[in-house]
Amino acid sequence: MTGPTPAESTPPSLQVSGLAYAYPDGHQALFGVDLTVARGERVALLGPNGAGKTTLVLHLNGILGAGAGSVEVAGLPVAKQNLAEIRRRVGIVFQDPDDQLFMPTVREDVAFGPAAAGLRGAELERRVAAALERVGMAEFADRPPHHLSFGQRRRVAVATVLAMEPEILVLDEPSSNLDPASRRELADILRSLDVTVLMVTHDLPYALELCPRSVVLSGGVIAADGRTQDLLCDEALMREHRLELPFGFDPRSVTAPV
Ligand SMILES: Nc1ncnc2c1ncn2[C@@H]1O[C@H](COP(=O)(O)OP(=O)(O)OP(=O)(O)O)[C@@H](O)[C@H]1O
Ligand SMILES: [Mg+2]
To answer: Which residues form the ABC transporter domain (predicted)?
Structure first.
């Protein structure tokens, strides 16, 4: 055989190197984070409140920056001159859906990103319809987002990002405030996507169900990186980083994805 194999020639979806960041008030939230996520991987980002998870997420498409270190998405550095392309490649579903829904109707919110990226007419309509269909919100297309329930707004927020067909999907606490059926439906959606996923979550069974690999961020540094099942079974690690399993949940009893 000649030439590199596809695995060698494809840059990782995400490469974070030595990332450190202090907020303008001087509070330092990240102290040198290294994280590589290969194409097609699904990785959970775990860690206690205040660990720096959202701060890290906000660096992935350049909302925050100018600290030390670097972030690359599929080989492209997150830098001012690349931001338009980076924002096409990185789809972030924010912790609060109200941070990303601002148009008069659901349809316009989902169309906003693809339209900004140059899609028009029937192609744009198809993209919007497919994304809404995917999250089970097609019949809500003409409703104002602010009339929807929290869980419905979360689904629309996911659709706004799916409509961009991103290289990497980043979700900040996707299962919070979802009812059990919606939580499972979102898991089914995420499993069905052929896309790299980085998922911030406090929902440890959800991490185990969806992500073969987890990373623990604690105090602004990566404290652990390994198989989700191994990390959840490591009682000392879990205690040290304030990670608690729900009552009665035994991660050993679950057949984890590989
Ligand atoms: N705008 C800000 N200005 C100053 N400090 C901030 C700001 N936003 C967050 N921080 C601080 O940075 C640290 C990391 O916050 P971050 O929101 O990234 O945590 P998190 O891991 O996402 O927590 P949670 O699980 O509660 O969502 C915290 O100590 C927080 O108080
Ligand atoms: Mg957060």
So the answer is: 14-244
